[in-house]
Amino acid sequence: MLLTGCEATTEHYFDTPFVSIADKDKLFTTTIIDKDANNLLSELCVTLVVGRDMFQEPIMVEYELIVGNGLKEGVDFKLQPSTASPLTFTPGTYDMPVRLIWMKNKDFDPSKDNTLEVRLTACSIPEIHLGYLGPDSIRKSFIFTKK
Amino acid sequence: MKKILVSFLSVAAAFAALTSCTKPDGEAALKSISLPASLNSSLSATVNGTIDEATKTVTFVIPAAAASSSFVPEFTLTRDDVLSVNGKEVTSGSTAVSLTTGTQIVVDDANSAMSVTYKVTVLGDDQSAALTSLIIKSADNAELISEDVVAEISEQMVVRVPSPAFRQELTLSLAATENDVIKVNNSAIEGGKALKVDTSFPVDIEVIDDVAGKTAKYVLKVGKILELKCDLIGSYTNDDLQDYVAIAVDEKADIPYLVVNENNTVEGVTTKNYATVLKYDGALSVVGNNKFSPSSATYCMIDVLDGKPYVAFVDAGAPTKSRVSCMAYDGNWSLVGEQGFGAKITGLSYYRISMILDPVSKYPIVALTTNEALNGQAKRDLSVSIFNGTEWDANKAVSGRTQTYCYNEKLARGTDKVALLAANQNDKTFSLYQYKDKSWSVLQSDLVIAGTSDICTYFADCEIAPDGTIWVAVGDNSSGSYLCQLYKYDGKELVKAANPLPGVTFNVSKCQWDLTFDAEGKPVVAVISADADSNLSAKLFTINPETKDWADPFDLPETPNASYMAAGRADNGNVYITYSTQNAGGKNIVNLYKYALEADILPE
Lengths: 147, 604
Prior knowledge:
The complex is a heterodimer of chains A (147) and B (604). Chain A is an all-beta fold. Chain A is built from no helices and 10 strands. Chain A has strands at residues 18-23, 30-33, 40-49, 59-67, 77-79, 87-89, 95-102, 115-123, 129-130, 141-146. Chain B is mainly β and 604 residues long. Chain B is built from 1 helix and 49 strands. Chain B starts with a helix and ends in a 7-residue tail after the last strand. The A-B interface holds A 39, 41, 43, 80-82, 88, 90, 92, 97, 99, 101 and B 167, 185-187, 198, 200-202, 204, 215, 601, 603-604.
């Protein structure tokens, strides 16, 4: 008779700090932008989850814009300069916006890659994980698709 | 022996006395200073001074609420020092001194010439970081804003600017509480102004008070002052469509209904002017089946309550010709009462009919000018028929009416009453009646427009405003050519409410107007008028009742091809206007316009 023992219950503490990105309401990580939309504002929220001990000085979070070959900054969209990378979180500030305005492009080509990815790339405190914890690091990026 | 001991002790004492002159410590410095709450009643908590030896300054952060500038300090100095303020020696914990910015604290070493002077800085701590004002000043934003735009301060602020300033870079003027630094979009401002702020995005504002150790954050959204716009929202056309159109709006549902005429061809025989009803619910669509009338249906009038449209018309298919029939849609189009009721009408173009739904019973009331003497009524006089749910109580006179020879009539519905305007051709007057609680009353028997040699009776319109006031738009030639005049009933009589529509004279065979009310309840008149060459145009006039001035009309873009103009409003203030145009091929098109506040535009 093979006796197998159960593993003892182990406690996991989710105390690893992380930073994530999602829509303004923190519900989604993708969205579709109507190709005919003009002057449409999109607002993302970059959220820092960190303990007070680690947050005695400003924390900088960098992100990059990965623009598909069908989109062009200044033509299809523009980024609010004050929300450009890097975002500086002063102690006590846990949410910061990234804002874009979408513009109608009369030369829009649906056959091209019309995605815009906003991806977190670095943090001034290396211990802060980019995206949710876990191998997939979800909420490390937000993807717009114009169609 | 005793003598020697005394001598030795004397020498020792003398030696001790000589060596008690203290060596200077080489320092004169303030090591600490505070203003204890226990010694200073104006302070709720002890205030510790911050000493900067490099700059020789001492900074006190004193609550703004502390009214006094006189304090008793406690302090420590390097050895053998004396502290004085304004030349007066200060004893720690005992002497009161005046401390304000610029006060000098002098520390002298008692055993040397060393002396240090510290300058005092007093920072008032208001315990607050808050924005106190935000203004977009016209002086700073010339050509974009003519009047200052003042924001109501809150964490999420919305202001509205006129169209030229919308989504532009604007200069903002900001003020905050004491000691605060204001940042706009992460940049600290200078001189209370943030220059060239891109307001197409929300504006992030941060107020920081390092003295109080507080921060406040705000977001400003700059929207557009919304304007009333008239936009084409739907069109209907086909080869059978005629140019006639009338409108009614389901006020609660904000759905306009149109009645139009279409030719009907059966086995090669075409009969004109069958009735079709359209409704707009995002697009124009036919209600039930088109061409639903039994036969030719002219001078169609429509009204709708609770989604049930009624249409009254001169029915060529009635058992007795030239009588009115009424139909309603309740899943199917069916007759309301008998086909062809009441007196005959002339069928002439200027003798039209009017139909409205009683707001209480929700059944139709029809008013017309008769072409036969019936039930004691004279020929060519005003006749009213009221449906009671089962049958028409037809062809009745309006109780109290004394005039004869009505040329035109118009019914209007309020929330609890019906108004009826009659144009009396014989004596050139207008009469106004009210139907309420199942009885008629005379509001005004004989409105005479001074100087009128002939009233224009073709289009006398009557409407009841959202506030219950009865308005009429009547035509007269007191100025020598037909003009549209606006009157309102003030409870006793019809009083002139506006100057004539400017720049518009009416060719009686080509023109028409329809009165309704905008979102604010002010009169709006939709007009088809003709110039000297009989070229038609469609316009929308709005008015300020206080000034009696008409604003510049809104020119509806499409050129009318006939003189049928109709307008109606919903409870939410949306106004709908309809008239027909013609395409290059001569096909009639019925257009529907919406006059309403443009959709809100905020950067969000």
